[in-house]
Amino acid sequence: MRLLPDQHQPQPEARSSYGGAELSPADRIRSNSSDWLISKAPAAPTPSVAPKRSKLSASAKEFHPTSMPHLSVAQWPSTPIPSTSQNENGSLTAYHPSALLGALRADAALLRWTREHVRDRLLRPGTLDADAALLMSPELSPHVVRLLEERDETMRRCVLAKVKPFVHTVMGSREGHAVFLELLRACEGRFDELEGIVQAACNRKGFLMRVVQQNPGVIALKELIRVVAPVPELRETLLAGLLNECLMGQSNGDVLLHHCFMFLPQEDCKIIIRLAVASIDEMLSSPIGCNCLSVCLSNARDGELQALEENISRRAIAIATDQCGINFLQYALRFGSEELKVRIVERVAENIVDLSRHGVGNYAVQACFLLTESDEAMRLVLSAFLLLRPGELEALVRDPHAPFVLAKLLDKGKRYSPLLAGDLAKRIDALPAAVRQEEHATRVLMWVIDRLFHN
């Protein structure tokens, strides 16, 4: 596979065909496009006066402009998104947008192309390099969009044929995704044409999820989901392609998941939830997976919801002490069902001492009474602390983390369960003075007790 060089890397000097080496992609674009322009250009008018003699001498230095403010320079990702196109030898070729645009701008004549120039080029067979420049350059791609808006059948099919060979690159580029969006709108309701797009996108070569690493790709893929949602065959093919490429482990996967739940029917959404249940441990091990699991929890229904909640509550302690999992547990305690909240709090209450002293776990204990807005959850946490032996309670008061948990619990507990909160405050107040005045955290706890229960 031969990749086009990045614009920031030194490029070898292109040799002519006499040296046995083929032209570079940039040279091919310039050559093909310039030949076409020359063939269409009108004859130059005869000047009415004799031209002035040039004042430049043979020794004059070459002029290099310091800036070209009229040209917009697109900011492309440093890592190219490979396409699935094939060259004449059948090998895969990756198109780097910056190299294509550099070649396009190298010939100033190409920047003056009109919509009719672009129309003529689209209707003719062209090289993959030239087609890519048409679809993804800031100067020419707007013409392609306008032509698609005319809803001409021939033009629609020509653009479709030129997009499919490197659909992933078009979807993921800043200008190309605008062409892709308009093409989808033009093809909406046309099964054969949409099928061609879906099959090109879901080619099982691992490129589909590379598209969503950039915001243009996310927008393009969201629109593709919406357009094919009413068509069962295409919907199933696209969903299988997304899941086969580990949608729930990819950047922006949660955004696409949310879009799937918005537009796909319930039966297809159940497939997503079942996959989440089967891979829950892997998903909980990364922030991206936790975000996707949160989306699944919010959209699960019926039996799939019960299975997901059962797996979450069973792993509550492991999740509570994990740097990635704690954010998901807090989400579940805030937005989960009442039944899930109680089951998680029960598991936390069984391990209240260890979690309260844990650097991460203490936040899980706090979430049980700060985020749930549940009287039952508050009662369970207060009761768990009241059941501790004096030595266990003393160890918590001496700990660097637990006193802050106790202080927040008493502060909120006085409003929800004043009797239980008062009993816990009395037990802490009865500890030896040396314990209550030992550490800064302990002094904060005693200040809270004095403020809430001694005034």
From TrEMBL:
Region spans: Disordered: 1-90
Compositionally biased tracts (Polar residues): 75-90
Pumilio repeat positions: 311-346, 347-383
Keywords, alphabetical: Repeat, Translation regulation
Superkingdom to which the source organism belongs: Eukaryota
One family name in Pfam for this protein: PUF
Domain annotation PUM-HD: ranges: 96-452
GO biological process, one term: regulation of translation
GO molecular function, a single term: mRNA binding
InterPro entries: ARM-like, ARM-type_fold, PUM-HD, Pumilio_RNA-bd_rpt
Cellular component GO terms, alphabetical: cytoplasm
Name this polypeptide is given: PUM-HD domain-containing protein
UniProt source species: Panicum virgatum (Blackwell switchgrass)
